[in-house]
Amino acid sequence: xxxxxxxxxxxxxxxxxxxxxxxxxxxxxxxxxxxxxxxxxxxxxxxxxxxxxxxxxxxxxxxxxxxxxxxxxxxxxxxxxxxxxxxxxxxxxxxxxxxxxxxxxxxxxxxxxxxxxxxxxxxxxxxxxxxxxxxxxxxxxxxxxxxxxxxxxxxxxxxxxxxxxxxxxxxxxx
Length: 174
Known about the structure:
By secondary structure, the protein is an alpha+beta fold. The chain contains six helices and five strands; from the N terminus they run H-E-H-E-H-E-H-E-E-H-H.
């Protein structure tokens, strides 16, 4: 069933808005995924703050041509039935969500991604990006590294204090 021109314009505007606010847009082939699988993927993506869209590639190209950032971006990878995972908050989340889902659903295959500067990444770059820690994990690692010297000093002082108290207790009982 064909969609009306006004519906197409709405879809182009929606995709254009998603691309404009996106830090990373990952696209993957979704041939062979059932409706139940797609609903599960959308649920997982929603929990991670990622939007999943299945839109005709031609409409995505039109939306990209209307955006200054993506106007000159190579769209040759946009072939076949693709789904688009977009995140405005986290650069790694779309790749991580799709990578996690693809582990149990081999019908989902990375094709590539568009960065927020308009650059194109191939499937291997997206797979490598999916292996990176998330923003929250990186913040936790940095905080842990910053607190490490404080914890070391606290432990050293605590150890000396315990030794002093043990010595005082030994003198008191003798």
